[in-house]
């Protein structure tokens, strides 16, 4: 089994265990944090959009709440069953496709394509970026979010050796480890309230607002997938520039990750 296939399998198992998108984790408030100041929820109203790597439908639910008129969802893993269940009742506004992101239909009529937390788990993301380019109308925009290298030095020094072990653990063992690590995260958040520790902004603005279940899911998500790349600023920009996008803009979200937006040229 290749790295990409293994990672898809990992996510299928993960999202079959962690199925819902309740609370702050699936909120418009978090959508605004994910993509602002480059894209605001109000800009999605009335638009036709794609969500590449939909998982259990968290981003789709945000897009629908923001007023998207139609979402093309693409999800390759066994989580597709969960995705379909979570979107029951929204069939008129959502089209579901069980496929990898490079199979996004080249309709050329989409206003936006969103790809949140996906490209950094694909060894070669270029076909996905090109598929998004073909699916967008001239002037349409691709919006991605990827792990960042800059600002993550202490975190990466801890997480990368740990991942060498955790990517091999079965679900129950990893879930138990995550529960133990969560105790340390809660303590770290408490110290961040009074001290400028690494990743303080992210921990106070995001992790501290998640329910305990979703906080542990966030940890699990960092430790489970077989493949994960942390992008430098230039690498993140190159993802869209090399895919033919113009007016590529980037935002260092909470000093640890990259939100990047590019526009398909009109000509």
Q: What does this molecule look like?
A:
There is one protein chain. The chain contains ten helices and seven strands. The longest helix has 22 residues, at 171-192. It is an alpha/beta fold and 267 residues long. 42% of the residues lie in helices and 18% in strands. It has a seven-stranded mixed beta sheet with strand order 3-2-1-4-5-7-6, with helices on both faces. The chain has helices at residues 3-17, 28-35, 58-66, 80-86, 126-135, 153-166, 171-192, 200-205, 212-223, 233-241; strands at 48-52, 70-74, 94-97, 110-116, 136-147, 246-253, 257-263. The model has no long low-confidence stretch (mean pLDDT 96). Helix 7 crosses helix 9 (212-223). Helix 4 (80-86) links the parallel strand 2 (70-74) and strand 3. The protein is globular. The protein folds into two domains: 3-148 and 228-263, 3-Layer(aba) Sandwich (Rossmann fold), CATH 3.40.50.150; 153-223, no CATH class.
CATH architecture of the largest domain: 3-Layer(aba) Sandwich
Main β sheet profile? 7 strands, mixed
**Which regions have little confidence, pLDDT < 50, spanning 5+ residues?**
none
Number of helices: 10
Fold-level CATH name of the largest domain: Rossmann fold
Determine the mean pLDDT. Answer: 96
Side by side, the strands of the main sheet go 3-2-1-4-5-7-6
Give the name of the CATH superfamily of the largest domain.
Vaccinia Virus protein VP39
How many domains, in number, for the residues?
Answer: 2
Supply the key terms:
10 helices, single chain, alpha/beta, 18% strand, 2 domains, Rossmann fold, seven-stranded mixed beta sheet, 267 residues
């Amino acid at each position: 089994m290749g790295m990409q296939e293994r990672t898809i399998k990992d996510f299928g198992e993960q999202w079959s265990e962690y199925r819902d998108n309740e609370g702050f984790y699936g909120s418009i408030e978090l959508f605004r944090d994910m993509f602002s100041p480059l894209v605001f929820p109000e800009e999605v109203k009335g638009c036709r959009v794609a969500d590449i790597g939909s998982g259990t439908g968290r981003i789709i639910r945000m897009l629908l709440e923001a007023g998207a008129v139609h979402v093309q969802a693409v999800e390759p893993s066994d989580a597709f069953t969960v995705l379909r269940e979570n979107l029951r009742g929204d069939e008129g506004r959502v089209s579901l496709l069980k496929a990898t992101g490079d199979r996004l239909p080249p309709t050329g009529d989409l206003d936006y394509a969103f790809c949140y937390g996906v490209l950094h788990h694909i060894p070669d993301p270029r076909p996905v970026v090109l598929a998004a380019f073909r699916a967008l109308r001239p002037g349409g925009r691709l919006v991605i979010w990827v792990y960042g290298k800059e600002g993550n030095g202490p975190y990466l020094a801890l997480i990368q050796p740990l991942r060498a072990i955790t990517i091999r653990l079965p679900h129950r063992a990893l879930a138990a480890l995550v529960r133990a690590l969560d105790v340390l995260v809660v303590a770290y958040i408490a110290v961040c309230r009074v001290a400028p520790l690494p990743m303080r902004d992210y921990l106070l603005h995001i992790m501290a607002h998640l329910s305990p279940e979703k906080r542990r899911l966030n940890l699990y998500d960092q430790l489970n997938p077989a493949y994960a790349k942390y992008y430098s600023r230039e690498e993140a920009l190159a993802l869209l520039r090399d895919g033919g996008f113009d007016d590529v803009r980037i935002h260092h979200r909470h000093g640890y990750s990259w939100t990047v937006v590019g526009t398909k040229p009109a000509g």
